[in-house]
Each structure stands twice: as C-alpha cells, then as structure tokens.
From TrEMBL, chains A, B:
It comes from the Bacteria. This is AcrR family transcriptional regulator. It holds the Pfam family TetR_C_11. Gene3D superfamilies: Homeodomain-like, Tetracycline Repressor, domain 2. It comes from Actinomadura algeriensis. InterPro entries: Homeodomain-like_sf, HTH-type_TetR-like_transc_reg, HTH_TetR, Tet_transcr_reg_TetR-rel_C_sf, TetR_C. Residues 20-80 form the HTH tetR-type domain.
Length: 206, 206
C-alpha cells in the first residue's frame, strides 16, 4: 500500500522516451519538494527548477500543483505491487498493515504529505481515492486465498474485511496521530481475522 | 462524537460573562465562515467582522486562525455529551457510528472542515486529538456496561474496541470519501462486536 519509488516510474520501463524521462524527473522533484517543504512549499516554479525542466512544459502538461500531486499518486499505482503471501489470513493482513505503518513512518514523509494534500486539492483527492481503490482491489486475493484454504466461508465480502483490517491503521496514523505502536499492525489484523471467522463479512446485506 | 452547536458553548452556561459572550460570538463566526468558505477562506478579519468584535480583541485572544480553530474544537468538547445507551454493545456502537456519520454529513460541513483543517494547523491538530481523546474516554462506559451485562469478558480493552468500531467510519467518510452507505454504522459496529466476543480485545499484549 506504499507509494512507488522513482525507480518504479514509467521512465525506467520506457527508457528511450523523452516524455517519460521528463515525467520521471518532474515527479521525483514533486516528491522531493513535498517531502522537504510540504504542500505549502510546493510550487510549479520550484518543481520545474528542481527537475531542470522548462516551467512552460510543467504548466502545459500538469496545469497546477494539484495536477502534479495527482500524477505522483497515479504513478505510485503504476507498479506491480502485490499483497504479501504469508499462507495465513492474519499473517497477510499483518504484513499489509506493517507496510502501511512503514509507509507512514518513512522519511521524508511522502505518503503522509500526499494524504494531507488530498485535503487541499480535489485533483489530488481523486487520485488518492483511485490509488486506494486499486490497492484494495489488488488485496482481494488475500481473502480469495483464505477462502480457498478454508479459513473463511465462500462469499466473504473481501472489501469490507480489508477496510476493517486497515482502517485502524489509517485512523491511528493519519487522524489520531497516535505514538508509534509496534503491535498495531498485528492487533488490527487479528481483530479483522477474528471478526471474519465469526461471520462478520459473510453476507453483504442482512 | 459530534461537534457542539453554538448553544452548547460556554456563553449559555455563564450568561453574564462578557468574555464568555465574546467567545461565543467569535466561535460561532468561525464555524459559520468555515462552513461557508472552508479553511482557505477563514481569516482573522472575516471572523472579527462577522462576530462584530474588534479585530484587536480577536488577535490578542486567539493569535491566529489555528488558535481560533483549536478553540472551536475545545469548545466542542466542553459539553455534557454521553454515548447512547441502547442496552446492547452492538446497539451502542451502531448509535455512536450513526452520530459520526450524521456529523460528517451535516451541512454546513463543520466537522469535516475541522478535520481537514487539522492538516493545516498544528494547533488545530492538537485540539482535534484532545477532542477525540475525550470522546473515546467518555465512550469507555459503553464497554464497561457490556462487561457488566456479561456480553464481554472483564479486562476487555475498551479503547481498542472503540477504535475498531469507529475507524471504518472515519476511513470511509474522511479518507476514502465513499458514497453514503446507510448500513455502514451497523456493519462496522457489528464487526467490532463480533471481534470482541471472539476475544480480540481481551488481553492487551500477548
């Protein structure tokens, strides 16, 4: 569930493309500026200068700071990330939650800054939603595997289970800003796995 | 878990105090401006004008916009709110989640604007954390009652249970911005209640 590194961007996979190269330079500059200065310090001029790309190019292609942030988020989803496979539901959810915790604790705090920026720019908010939607969709295989192993009943609502497992992470890390708790990933995973085993997500509508 | 209405502020309880009256006028103006214009439209001048209070008074007493927001949040916690008592754990948690959903859906969107503002101002963020801390502390009685009714084992970790029940609300409403789902309050409550019955919060550290 973490944002991609610059190396995961399009430029490396299409090494010959000038357009892709410029995009990679600009998005790396956005991440760097965001990490150092936060949303309030992020400007089209600062990004262009840092990326060593013409300001006119940045304006033409990204429009405004919201457009830059949205493209950083879209690029973060343009990778081959797959959820961990630990051979148990609780293990998979714990590993997933650990990635979220690590991502939020990373320095510079790009993931945290992008979430904060989603409250400032509607374009960034939409891109953040697209990224989460994509990540949750990719994670549904965690629930499919648990059903196939017989850990969960068929028909378990994967999305509700995944939100139940991960929501306490985001609540603590993004909203409550609780001090670091190394047990949080496993506690939240275990809670969701116990609820799932008790049939909490077995039928969508009762 | 909702923000208080202007009527719940100190002014009504200390009707004779000029200081309290000014505070009530200013905080009502902050809420109104925030609801109409959001954080970006909130200024010390706009609040002073709307409240019909001297700008110098507003600057002296609240310092800056962050100070105003922090005081709105502190005032929201200065009430006699208690969690609903429906005679069952799932019922109590559902009613609590319903209040959160209603608060986030209210127009003008004061609660949503205050949460968004907590990403802009450290003072507002600290006040938001104090408000949540106070609300969660007041909600612990929900778990105490369930233990006394025999619904939950003694030693159940009230805070973790309450966060598990409410986190999906905040995740959907604040971060994922999912379309309105009338079943969400009950689904999240039921999930937490099932996990609690399965012992998810029975022992703090394993």
């Amino acid at each position: 569930m973490t944002a991609s590194t610059p190396e995961a961007d399009g430029a490396r996979r299409r090494p010959g493309g000038r357009t892709a190269r410029i995009r990679a330079q600009v998005l790396a500059a956005v991440r760097a500026e965001l990490g150092e200065r936060g949303f309030d310090g992020l400007t089209m001029e600062g990004v262009a200068a840092r990326a060593e790309v013409h300001r006119a190019t940045v304006y033409r292609r990204w429009g405004d700071v919201g457009g830059l942030l949205a493209d950083v988020l879209d690029a973060a989803g343009d990778d081959d990330w797959r959820p961990p496979d630990t051979a148990s539901l609780e293990g998979d959810l714990t590993a997933l939650n650990q990635e979220i915790q690590d991502g939020m604790a990373a320095r510079p705090p790009i993931m945290a800054a992008l979430i904060a920026a989603s409250f400032r720019s509607e374009k960034a908010a939409e891109a953040q939603r697209r990224l989460w939607e994509d990540r949750y969709a990719r994670c549904e295989i965690v629930v499919d595997r648990a059903v196939r192993r017989g850990e969960l009943p068929p028909g378990t609502d994967a999305r509700r289970l995944l939100v139940a497992a991960t929501a306490p992470m985001y609540h603590h890390l993004v909203l409550l800003r609780t001090p670091h708790d190394p047990d949080l990933p496993r506690d939240a995973a275990r809670t969701a796995a116990l609820a799932a085993a008790a049939g909490a997500f077995a039928d969508r509508r009762r």
